[in-house]
Known about the structure:
The complex is a heterodimer of chains A (271) and B (94).
Chain A: E1 3-8, H1 16-29, E2 34-38, H2 46-50, H3 60-64, H4 70-73, E3 75-76, E4 83-86, H5 99-110, E5 115-119, H6 126-133, E6 137-142, H7 146-162, H8 164-167, E7 174-182, H9 184-188, H10 195-202, E8 206-211, H11 215-222, H12 233-245, H13 263-268
Parallel strand pairs in A: 1-5, 1-6, 2-4, 2-5, 6-7, 7-8
Antiparallel strand pairs in A: 3-4
Helix pairs in contact in A: 1-12
Chain B: H1 3-12, H2 18-37, H3 45-59, E1 67-74, E2 77-84, H4 88-93
Antiparallel strand pairs in B: 1-2
Amino acid sequence: MSKVIVVTSGKGGVGKTTTSASFSSGLALRGNKTVVIDFDVGLRNLDLIMGCERRVVYDIINVINGEVSLKQALIKDKNCDNLYILPASQTRDKDALNLEGVERILNELKESFDCIVCDSPAGIESGAFTAMYFADEALIVTNPEVSSVRDSDRILGILAAKSKRAVDGLEPVKEHLLVTRYDPKRVEAGEMLSVVDIQEILRIPLIGVIPESESVLQASNAGTPAIHLDKSDVAEAYRDVVGRFMGDAGLPMRFVTAEKKGFFKRLLGGR
Amino acid sequence: MSMIADLISYLRGNDKKTAVVAKERLQIILAHERAGRGAPTPDYLPALQEELMVVIAKYIHIDRESINVQLEKHGEYDVLELNITLPDKMRNNR
Lengths: 271, 94
């Protein structure tokens, strides 16, 4: 059975596209045939983060309008054999993305893919709604910051009340909390909400913690999803997230406590 | 914050960390917002109100408006609130 997973948050700039790119890559690396869809019509960016912007010819709206086949619009990822990208349209307005059209595309994708990752735009307007409507599971990307937590709560309310699963009276969308841009040092100093605080407020299971890191910008600069970076906390953290999603319940939660600096590191002023 | 400011706030005892403030603010605003959007009122409420009316009317003469049935969310609990305003006459009799 193929799964539709939405990556959503309500608030912008918290790491939805970064997460969509790394999460879908991770799923593909673990052998799942995966497609990642950009739902941000008018402001597409997933292509840049995946490093395939120059290979975009057709987009999701072309497919919905029946101008091209799904096969023509899918772009094969350069890093993973099992991964394809379906870009958003840059020129059309977001109303071109209708529920019937998206449902048709998802049903066709389900025939050949195990995992369908939907990268939601920010906000709670039609684009975000369409991205989450058909979801079986949801990654709720949240920063340890008041406005992000509040927006995540709002999104959880919408998932519980208005998603297709809710409307059809099926088993509810399975929700996962993903805390990103986490800085354990600031948490220990009492300057940042802790993972425990966020979980207590949002009351959904935690799937992972992505530490604040300079390598996220470097990954986006290069057009390589962060999960592929060598020796990076962020890559390790995303691999853990994928592992837990695939059912490795025993993985310890890493990057939640501040690393104690050794004597030499302090002496040498290393970061 | 300078060391002197730190010291003053320490002496005053108001050195509440901002993360604690953030959590408290979130808990308050989200409790409010969740109650607002909450689960839609269950469809048995009007019928319940109707039947309660019939029972109460057997003993006391009251208007339809003076009975109010509400379902509220208080944290983890759902609270069914019945509010019956007794007519003035009855209160005067006491």
